[in-house]
Amino acid sequence: MEWSDRGIVLSARRHGESSAVVSALTAAHGRHAGLVRGAKRAGGTFEPGNLVQLRWRARLEDHLGNFQAELIHSFAASLLDDPLKLAALTSACALIDSALAERERHDKVFESLSGLLNTLEQGTSADWQGVYVRFEFNLLTDLGFGLDLSQCAATGRNDTLVFVSPKTGRAVSATAGEPYRDRLLPLPGFLLDTKATASSKEIADGLLLTGSFLERHVFAPHGKKFPLARTRLIDRIVSSDNVAPGKEA
After folding, report:
1. How many C-alpha atoms does 29 have within 13 Å on its Cβ side?
2. What backbone torsions phi and psi does residue 31 show, to the nearest 5 degrees?
3. Where does the chain have alpha helices with state H?
């Protein structure tokens, strides 16, 4: 068995003296792992977030197999001088590595992660933080737990949508939700308008929103906790902007 594909490195776990088991999100083969012999000699090729050209070989399809890799672009190295952006890259890779089943194709997640990496490398803080929240939003959608922000769950109208029900994932208008605001999650406006720039408070609210549903639907049912990388990112964003989410995720 053999295939060749582009991949984004998600993690590399040491195996023996000089090898590593590398997990990557590939364009056409989903999240896939492989053994890299002599990975220790590959320098920074297998840092999370790096774009690589992969060749996978195995005797049987269900074997771990071996990876050979050629570095295409080192996003990790380009972000070394910006700890907050590097934390976002690490968080995104850790989320995918933990949330996606192995060897299931996820084209939209690959596109969303690629877009996030490009924005992290080129964009300003106002750009990438909103893109990161949308990345988590898109991850939920691809996993089958997308939020319905098209109209109010109570009235059927699509004006003044400012809340989300934590039970149904549906939007709620300001009027219908006001009596229950303490039980609802805030809906940041930039998720309704792709051209809008998110404020610091909206970023915090967006991370609370996506985090709540990732916890409930993706991690908790499998006895998993949020990757530490994601927790560290939230701490960094909150401390850098001095804005706390309204509730705990």
Report:
1. 18
2. -75, 125
3. 75-78, 83-99, 107-122, 125-142, 174-177, 200-213, 228-241
Do 197 and 126 contact (CB within 8 A), yes or no?
yes
Regions of the chain where pLDDT drops below 50:
246-249
DSSP letter for 102, please.
Answer: B
Q: Name the one residue in this structure whose structure tokens are 């907050």.
A: 84
pLDDT of amino acid 242: 53
Query: What is the spatial distance between Cα 106 and Cα 93, in angstroms, rounded to a whole number?
Result: 14
Residue 230, φ and ψ in degrees, nearest 5: -70, -40
pLDDT at 249: 36
- How far is residue 195's CA from residue 225's CA, in Å, rounded to a whole number? 33
Asked if 188 and 198 count as a contact pair (C-beta separation under 8 A), the reply is yes
Whole-number pLDDT of residue 246: 47
Angle (nearest 5°) at CA 181 between 175 and 184 = 110
**Token pair in block for residue 173:** 């208008």
Which domains, from first to last, does the chain contain? 2-75 (2.40.50.140), 79-149+187-241 (1.20.1440)
- Report how far residue 112's alpha carbon sits from residue 119's, in angstroms, rounded to the nearest whole number: 11
Q: What is the rounded distance in angstroms from the CA atom of residue 133 to the CA atom of residue 211?
A: 10
Residues 189-233 have pLDDT tens digits of 999 998 888 898 999 999 999 999 999 999 999 999 899 999 999
> For residue 108, how many C-alpha atoms fall within 13 Å in the half-sphere facing its CB?
11
Enter the pTM of the model. 0.91
Residue tagged 């690629």 (tokens): 114
Supply the pLDDT for residue 39: 78
Per the listing, tokens 């590399």 go with: 12
- Please list, in sequence order, all residues whose beta carbon lies within 8 angstroms of the beta carbon of residue 134, skipping any fewer than 6 positions away: 112, 191
